[in-house]
Automatic annotation (TrEMBL):
Cofactor: Mg(2+)
NCBIfam families: MTHFS_bact
The protein's Enzyme Commission number: 6.3.3.2
Organism: Flavobacterium cheonhonense
UniProt keywords, alphabetically: ATP-binding, Magnesium, Metal-binding, Nucleotide-binding
Keyword ATP-binding: yes
Protein name: 5-formyltetrahydrofolate cyclo-ligase
Enzyme class: ligase
SUPFAM superfamilies: NagB/RpiA/CoA transferase-like
Family of the protein in this entry: Belongs to the 5-formyltetrahydrofolate cyclo-ligase family.
Keyword Magnesium: yes
PANTHER family: ATPASE INHIBITOR/5-FORMYLTETRAHYDROFOLATE CYCLO-LIGASE (PTHR23407), CHROMOSOME UNDETERMINED SCAFFOLD_24, WHOLE GENOME SHOTGUN SEQUENCE (PTHR23407:SF11)
Length: 192
């Protein structure tokens, strides 16, 4: 399927989920995440949930990261340049919602993408090869291209993968894993 059709399909599927289903399945994803061999790393980049989009609730993952005393990094997006600035989450971090209802840090200690070990990547859909479909702005592909080559890219989804995304671009950066409530999908790395 084409990305635009997948966006439409998964937006509709997510809209059918109740708040209770989102909470239960998000907790199941966070628990399954504990099985991944990523916890020796230090710097974890976490996206903050857009509730209106019925995304996976990352609050449970945030609690795991805090409990494991990890360095948690969150992003602020610039919709003019389609670039992201990354800030260390601290007790002093102040947040505000942007025009798209995304909670973002106001400011703080900036962390370069090259410092990150693990990036949790938001997505609408993904396929059996680890290709993902986001909201179409390219923020994450641009950001992930600035990370070190060995950064671990983990997606979260309530759903199983599509067989194939038809219109994958050379700039699209594949996931290493996608965690669902039922399983962990591991994707082979391609040599760059």
């Amino acid at each position: 399927m084409f990305k635009k059709d997948l966006r439409k399909k998964y937006k509709a599927l997510r809209q059918q989920l109740s708040e209770a289903q989102i909470e239960d399945q998000s907790l199941a994803i966070a628990n399954r995440l504990l099985q991944l061999d990523i916890w020796e790393n230090t710097y974890f980049h976490l996206f903050l949930t857009i509730e209106e989009q019925k995304e996976v609730d990352t609050e449970f993952v945030l609690q795991i990261l805090a409990g494991k005393d990890k360095e948690i990094v969150v992003a602020k997006s610039n919709f003019d340049t389609l670039a992201m600035t990354h800030f260390l989450l601290t007790d002093n971090t102040k947040f505000q919602k942007n025009q798209y209802n995304i909670f973002e840090p106001v400011d703080g200690i900036e962390v370069p993408p090259s410092k990150l070990d693990v990036v949790f990547v938001p997505l609408m859909a993904y396929d059996s090869n680890g290709n993902r479909v986001g909201y179409g702005k390219g923020f994450y592909d641009k950001f992930l291209s600035q990370c070190k080559e060995e950064v671990i890219k983990v997606g979260f989804s309530f759903f199983e993968p599509e067989e194939n995304i038809t219109d994958v671009s050379p700039n699209d950066i594949r996931l290493d894993y996608c965690v669902t409530p039922e399983t962990i999908h591991k994707f082979p790395r391609t040599s760059s």
